[in-house]
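Discussion board: Methods & Data

I've been asked by a reviewer to show the raw model output for two of the constructs in my manuscript, not just the figures. I'm not sure how much to include, so I'm pasting the format here to get opinions. Each protein appears as its amino acid sequence followed by a line of discrete structure tokens. Is this the kind of thing reviewers expect to see in a supplement, or should I convert it first? Here is construct A:
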Amino acid sequence: MVASLLIPVLLSAVALFFASFLSWMVFQLHRSDWIKIEQEDEFLDALRGLNLGRGSYMFPGCKTPEEMKSESYQQKWEQGPRGIITLFDKVNMGRNLGLTFLYFLVISFALVCLATLVLSPGAEFTVVFRFFALAALLTFLSAIVQHAIWFHNRITGHIIESILYAVIVGLIFGSFWPAA
């Protein structure tokens, strides 16, 4: 039965990829996810001077649980600021777009494999829709993989996208589910 669903798997991945494009480029759900630092030039100069490599850094930071208990760490924590900064290499749009599409393809295929365990050929549209929409919502809402590819963090628009993606997946598989 999985083989008969390869076309909707591909269609689902393409539709999700397009929805992702619309979310970012047309509806701009993520426009206000990040705040510009007013003293950006000074901030960037300071970061360059630290010569940090790619990665996520917590500040104040500590290397051991014992250090976290120290008075100096506690004082830094109380004084602030506190946060996380992620530094990454130049964005490779082709690579990230390819990984995003692959992510959608893998998720669509995994949802089909899951569905074949509980749904029979000929299941009603509403049953198939509800199953796929709920499974997709749980997948996309709890997943940070797609956003980690691009930004290494979670963003507000993700909730709206997750609901949209769930509806898209539910509609596609509900429409293409094999007859009895």
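Construct B, same format:
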Amino acid sequence: MWPGPYSEWGSKKNIIASCDQSLKRLQSDYVDIFYHHRPDPDTPIEETARALDLLVQQGKALYIGISNYSAEQTKAITKVFRALGTPFIIHQPRYNMLDRWIEDGLTDVLADEGIGAITFSPLAQGLLTNRYLNGIPADSRVARPDSPFLSPEKVDQTISTVQELNKIAQQRGQSLSEMALAWNLQQPTVASVLVGASRLSQLQDSVHALDNLTFTAEELAAIQKILA
């Protein structure tokens, strides 16, 4: 947020200042949900939790969310929030067919604590779309040398998997991206997904995922076999 100490992470100084700066940019008195986007290894989790709770007390946020917290970190901060009476309602993790880390404990914690997940990167930066089914298009961001998230190597590593998933999507009468979003939503702890779009057609494609959210046991087993 600014040069020098306390410029990021989870200290009370950073959290309060970050919220104040965001509200100033938004020209708003409050936000519906204020997220803490990553746990701070150098700040006690109690300080982070109390700072987030203070935002609610000050009327700057109605609810609190966290992002990228592990199962144990989520359990720890939830305990503090419950003691404080903080309206902590949502966890925002990265989750998609190619990145299922939340299934290794986090989904259990969310279910036990009654907290929903709103997942980001559900299409794996475009890997779970028809964009790279037949290789890397010359005008794609993967083809650019400055692409921060995707690389030709990553496309090469996943292309056979994505092609097999696309066959199941076609059998379901969906595009690959529609099926990928529907698959996210069939996870019981996932309340919603965050979708990005650079064109209206991409957003329309995402919305059509709602046309078929049900998977048969055979489809889930086939998907699991491909992803294993």
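Answer (T.O., handling editor elsewhere):
This is acceptable in a supplement if you add a one-line summary per construct. For B, something like: Residues 1-92 form a domain with the Rossmann fold fold (CATH 3.40.50.150).
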